[in-house]
Amino acid sequence: MSETVERHEFGAEVGRLLDLVVHALYSEREIFLRELVANAADAVDRRRFEALTNEALALPAEAKLRITPDKAARTLTISDAGIGMGKAELAQHLGTIARSGTRAFAQSLAEAPAGEKPSLIGQFGVGFYSAFMVAERVEVTSRRAGTEEAWLWASEGKGDYTLAPAERADAGTDIVLHMKADAEEFLEPFRLSAIIRKWADHIAIPIMVVKDGKEEPANEGTALWQKPKSEVSEESYTEFYRHLGHMFDSPWATLHWRAEGALDFSALLFIPGMKPFQAVEEERKSPVRLHVRRMFITDEAELLPPFLRFVQGVVDTEDLPLNVSREMLQATPVLARIRRAVTNRVLSELKSKAKDAEGYAKFWENFGTVLKEGVWEPGEHQKDVAALLRFRSTAVEGWTSLADYVSRMKEGQEAIHILVGDDAAALAKSPQLEGYRARGLEVLLLSDQIDAFWPERLGSFEEKPIRSITQGAAKLTPAEGEEAAPDVSALLERLKTALSEHVSEVRATDRLVESAAVLAAGEFGPDLAMQRLLRRAGRGFAGGLPVLEVNPRHALIRKLAEGEFDDAALAEQAGLIFDLARLQDGDSPRDPADFARRVAAALAG
């Protein structure tokens, strides 16, 4: 027998290339099983296709992939009933790095009708060599369908391989991996099953793992997203959603469609019905899984933009080229078009669901904060996302949209008014609102941290500028029946002198009705909410000190304007007013202990 063994050199610089495959090409060793299963699935598909014109090549009644671990022998065997390979094919496809039989076969089918082409997974011919990440020796026994001869290919991945006659009862291929000492984890049936579920759960061919002499199914074998919607029940959708995202609820929305034409892909996406335990605000990446011809490739393809990262699901395409590692996607125009199409479909679904105000409110309370990032990030979807935003308001109960706000704007009102803070309930009681309420002007109450950022980026909605009511002087027309304000200009100068280290200006305002004073930001630079965030982060900002606005009609301001206070007494009162204004705005007094002392002294009279 040894006389018939032929020794051959690999057809490329195999030492360097195998070293690349084993140590650099793949980041996870378990990938080897995905690659070998993909090759086996391709072989079965090739045999099924060729049997269309040659009945002698027909698959066995129960074609399957069989994975058999043997701890005693320290071997792992992967068997299929596929097309198999003859001597020449073994030398050609396994003896030359980066020459793939699958790829050559796919090229030969270029003229075949689209509906008759098998779904081929492997394309680049290096996946087989990933076996050497875990195996010190690899043996391949294969018999080409329609022939009687079998051949054994064997190599230790060190520059050469051998070919020898062999025996195999039926057509197909057996790959035997002689495992390395540090790879014995891949001889555990439960570990093998877990890898199959992760990487190849939806390959149509049954994959069996042998445990204690019995075959146990390792894959589901049906790609739910490939089925017509009419054939999938709500229960099946929910079960798959829970399996996919490890969730316990039911999806709030299910999107299932197939795109055909310029792009060819299937998608099954879910919008969760509840927040996940791990906040989606933390990880700004889309978890949607990318499959190519039903084979899981990665969940890091970022198929949706970060502001839609709460969406779970699968996108499966046959059009997407991959690089040789099959882990890192090429930046291809096809992938960019798929991303755009999937994003547009999700936004369209949200727009449709938003017509049901009560149902949409549940979604908004779960994921509204994340969706707002789509307005902060400029791009083609900014206006679409803006239309999906919801807010609390001084004019209506519940949530309202920017479009609804614009429809309620008073005649002559030029801008959309907003007030940003940390808590919507506290904002609703803010003295900043007094003058707007007195004039029947609606103000949107924004209480998420990102609300300090996106309004300036969006700028306007339906040609109406978005303005923070804490920025710049309030430009309010006199309220009906409002008495003329007394002249307190002399007091304003004295207050500004007393507070020169803390304010840039002291001015009278019409924005207050019941309160004595309030802070405002300058006309340019960040508003008060943004200033608070920047101070908490230890960041400086342009725009200078805040402005102190006082209500000239308030009894306290009148008392100070009409009374005789020396500079020291007025400075004491000015400091108290300034700290009260800070408290009203959500900040602490400059010196809490001193503030408490002054308040106690004032109360004592």
TrEMBL record:
The keyword Chaperone applies. Residues 1-326 are annotated as: A. Keywords: ATP-binding, Chaperone, Cytoplasm, Nucleotide-binding, Stress response. Its main location: cytoplasm. InterPro entries: HATPase_C_sf, HSP90_C, Hsp90_fam, Hsp90_N, Ribosomal_Su5_D2-typ_SF. It is found in: Cytoplasm. Residues 533-605 are annotated as: C. The keyword Nucleotide-binding applies. Molecular chaperone. Has ATPase activity. Belongs to the heat shock protein 90 family. Homodimer. NCBIfam families: PRK05218.1. HAMAP family: HSP90. This is Chaperone protein HtpG. It comes from Sediminicoccus rosea.
